[in-house]
Known about the structure:
Number of strands: 15
Largest sheet: 9 strands, mixed
Helix content: 25-40%
Shape: globular
Bound molecules: iron/sulfur cluster
Radius of gyration: 20 Å
Number of helices: 14
Structural class: alpha/beta
Strand content: 15-25%
Amino acid sequence: MNKVHISKCPDYDYIKVEQAVKECFEAMPEVKEKLFEGAKVLVKTNLLMRKNPEEAVTTHPAVVEAIVRYLLELGCKPIIGDSPGGPFNEWNLKGVYKAGGMNAVAENTGCELNYDTSVIEVHNDKAKLLKTMQIIKVAHDVDFVISAAKLKTHGMMTYTGAVKNLFGVIPGITKAEYHFKMNNTANFAEHLVDICEYVNPLISIIDAIDGMEGDGPSAGMKKHVGLVMASTNPYALDVAASKVAGISHELIPTIVAAEKRGLSTTDMKQFEMTGVPMNEINVEPFQLPTSINVNFVGGRVPKFMEKFVSNTFRPQPVFDHAICVGCGDCKRSCPPDIIKMVNGKPIPDLDKCIRCFCCHELCPIKAVDIKKHWLHEKLFG
Ligand code: SF4
Ligand code: SF4
């Protein structure tokens, strides 16, 4: 249940990537056993926004191509898809596929790129919070989903990998609605675990060749790691991948939520690890996001003060009007709709801000920064 495979892959040279991805599949023989000829498989790629692969925001096309080719060899019908930030429509999909190198993957392999923008309501009585959810129809129609994720830090959730990647099955702006409903990190994590439990990926593969540290998932710094990691248990994979990144498990709400539900342990001694041993991996710990919630550095103020400190001194989004191009993406992605465009520039009502940092995540030109309160800086650095 907690088997994780790690392959070395120094760069995105396709031959090396294909070998690493093949090793991942071969380490999980139960995946091949389940796949059948003609099976439709959604390769749920992280295509957050229109970014070229070198920026390390999206899953690299070489990794996606290697997954697709493996599936084609088995006679499956892979479909590459995601619901990126912004509206879930063909125009937006065309933009992310082109920028992220997915058109080339489709041309090289003949696989399908998803353009079906229909949405379906699904139910899961076993869910903790999201018993009913809207998802992109393709994720429901396929026989299997593979989570093809990217190793990055995340402003709201500290880390994003196999589990958070599946938030992309929630269509376009419905994501903002879910953010708003689950407006604290612990609730939002439960919600992400519910989505992951419903999607139930057949295997999760993390592109950790180049990851992102600092203010991920889109405005951080590229970080070379040189690995491809996989597991049939997305929670265990996130435990291992965040360990590689040097991020404490208690700072990652999805890992905390999954462990409480018994979906994975954080005790890696109970993992069955194959491939590169953890003690041979020597990656400088990832820089954490500026926005990291003070609740997660608990223990540094008395318990009874944690909520007050968190609410009063929490970091906030700051909009740089000098470089802002007035595209309005931040306004459209703001869950509580508290950003007004005044003379073409965004003005947020910070009293109503839920600190989801979607504006920071989806600004195409990094015009939204995250600033800590000066006292927060003094207390927590
Ligand atoms: S202003 Fe930014 S951080 Fe605040 S609620 Fe809106 S999108 Fe989230
Ligand atoms: S801050 Fe960024 S997302 Fe918002 S309007 Fe300006 S450029 Fe667009």
